[in-house]
């Protein structure tokens, strides 16, 4: 069941916003409205976030992503549409009720830390609890626990200006965690950090998420960050959501040229997984290994494979076994049952580098012009003729 839902959200700044929404619904272009002094920041945005999911909203500056985030907790009132959190319509709440929801159920982590310079690290981490009216001893205990979660145990009495940028951001994250809010909204939270510190914070968030299972909406302009963090990703352009999907969906089947242009510089080897590129196990049946063994059963395939991996294994981890053996890597489920194979040619094809002399699978299908992962994805469901007895798998 969805924890958070956005339904047809619009945010228009300027004169006669309701009329502007009607024009947008009728097909008027955003640029046409701007000539009249009206700015459509968010246009017909709809999505759902499941419990325990990191939902990333990604887009360039001016795409509307931060405006969208601020409508989710009522900092900005939508011009049209509504926001549901645990089936409660936040857009219908009175100001006092909305403040109560924000103080107890929704926490926000800002880009520039937003720490009070005259308060200690512990006092900053406890601030949200202070707003809730939590007694002093209890809020100190919970803030101390939250600081421990983000790796700042022992820094409670320090001042913000004594901390590095990454440590200050950890304090901001601890403040959000201390309130035990069900929903975390993170607005470009790591973008002000140096690259190494930024990756460390990403690691920290992923580790915390394994333990705490929070529902998180994360805003970023960095596609690599989106791909690394997001269970699902929404790509925004000019106020509209142009695609929603997993990292693999967006890499393999971009909705349009705009999305495709974003993905061209992404390190696919660390995003795509064995499950995204694997072929059916039957593709390896009937083949012969270099030592003359014919693979007649799925057990033969697993026994002969240079490595056995799970579906969520990044393909970067398949390079070594594929380079050492012509036999396909075996992909198994949690029970150890074979669910697919990754031949060497398929691994190279997903990077756009077909093995010399290897026939590209996509050439025989309706997506013959597709390149890289699109061709691989399309071929996964294609009917493959049964392999002839004795076909050699070396180089496959």
UniProtKB/TrEMBL annotation:
Keywords: Amino-acid transport, ATP-binding, Nucleotide-binding, Transport
Residue ranges of every copy of the ABC transporter domain listed in the record: 4-263
Composition skew (Acidic residues), residue ranges: 356-366
Pfam family, one: ABC_tran
Region described as Disordered: 355-396
SMART domains in alphabetical order: AAA
Gene Ontology MF terms in the entry: ATP binding
NCBIfam families from the UniProt entry: proV
Family the UniProt entry places it in: Belongs to the ABC transporter superfamily.
The name this protein goes by in its record: Glycine betaine/L-proline ABC transporter ATP-binding protein
Organism, as annotated: Streptomyces milbemycinicus
Lineage: Bacteria, Bacillati, Actinomycetota, Actinomycetes, Kitasatosporales
